[in-house]
Amino acid sequence: MKKLWSACLLLLSIAVITAGCGGKSGDSEKSSNSSGGGDIKSAVYYVNGTLGDKGFFDSAQAGFQKAGTDLGIDIKTVEGGNNQADWASSLESLVASKKYDVVLTGTIQMVDIVKDLAKRYPDQKFIFFDEVINDIPNVYSMLYSQSEGSFLAGAFAALVTTSTELKGANPDKVIGFVGGVDDPIVNDFKSGYEQGAQYIDKDVKIITSYVGDWSNAPKAKELTLAQYNTQKADIVYQVAGGAGLGTLEAGNEAGKYSIGVDANQNPLYPGSVLTSMLKNIDTSVFRAFQLLQQGKLPLGKTEVLGLKEGGVGIAKDDLYAQYVPKSIQDKIAEIEKKLSTGEIKVESTL
């Protein structure tokens, strides 16, 4: 009997150890999770910055998870890390597994990789966010009118720097812009921002700095503090992913103002982050899965989502109502109407 009991304990121990030894992911895959149980299986692949940025990628993930919860999509999340040399092979391993009906990914760095894979794996569907991939029959892409959303951010910043109601504004008409990298998408944000500021007051000066990546928050903070303290900026707009959190921290420490990006970052530093330019990645990702489930996803095409389509906007939460003067709120509402009707047209650099 004693021997039998010992054997049972041994078998139980082996079972526990075996259960704890799951499959090992590839070197470039930082994390993964699955949920749902519907007929559609999907994986998302993130690169360069990945999750935890409280903005762009976190917004995409919120939409993806909502698709899992609300639509019953079976989802898996993979973070590809910052080593660009790994991205093509890591994404191909997901595609070649033939486990997923659709793969979600995005940003300008992934365009050529997805074009190549889509052509070599014609049965694999892709949903691509934040860039254009046209005329490939198994790829649907979404582009956001960041220039239009940034026009609102620029107009808002110009109204702040010329305001006599906000304590943090000095007499100099100076606003700042901190970008992650000097690339076409970031510069489209910048162009819209400049156009919006000039619409309010042609004498407003715009200072620009680039971090050089999407993760170095201390460097973004340093660049932003220089804009506030040396170059007299009253408000700085960050388009720098996770690095941009340093810009928001700098604004709070300096007693100045900032504008968040992609998701509503107002709650991070109430009264300092006055608003955020919303790139509604979450809404658009969820919408894409709805269309896929309904058999209406326009594969082979790109949709451009602007203010009118709900693709972009600015965050108007309770903090916005509390800290932004009514005169500025009213002017922004007027500009939004003119953008939606086409009375104001914003030029894109893309």
Describe it.
Belongs to the BMP lipoprotein family. Residues 1-19 form the signal peptide. The chain is globular. It has helices at residues 2-19, 56-71, 84-96, 111-120, 146-161, 184-200, 217-229, 245-254, 281-293, 318-323, 326-341, and strands at residues 34-35, 41-46, 74-79, 102-106, 125-129, 139-144, 174-179, 205-210, 235-239, 257-262, 273-279, 302-305, 312-314. It contains eleven helices and 13 strands. With 350 residues, the protein is an alpha/beta fold. The strands form two sheets. Strands 1-3-2-4-5-6-12 form a seven-stranded mixed β-sheet, sandwiched between helices. It has two domains: 25-144 and 282-305, 3-Layer(aba) Sandwich (Rossmann fold), CATH 3.40.50.2300; 146-279 and 316-341, Response regulator (Rossmann fold), CATH 3.40.50.
Sequence of strands across the biggest β-sheet = 1-3-2-4-5-6-12
Instruction: Please tell me the CATH architecture of the largest domain by its name.
Output: 3-Layer(aba) Sandwich
Strand content: 15-25%
Strand-pairing-aware structural class: alpha/beta
Shape: globular
Main sheet properties: 7 strands, mixed
Taking all Cα atoms into account, the compactness measure Rg is 23 Å
Q: How many domains, in number, for the residues? A: 2
Question: CATH homologous superfamily of the largest domain, by name?
Answer: Response regulator
User: For the residues shown, what is the average pLDDT?
Assistant: 89
InterPro entries: BMP_lipoprotein, Peripla_BP_I, PnrA-like
Family: Belongs to the BMP lipoprotein family.
Pfam families: Bmp
Subcellular location: Cell membrane
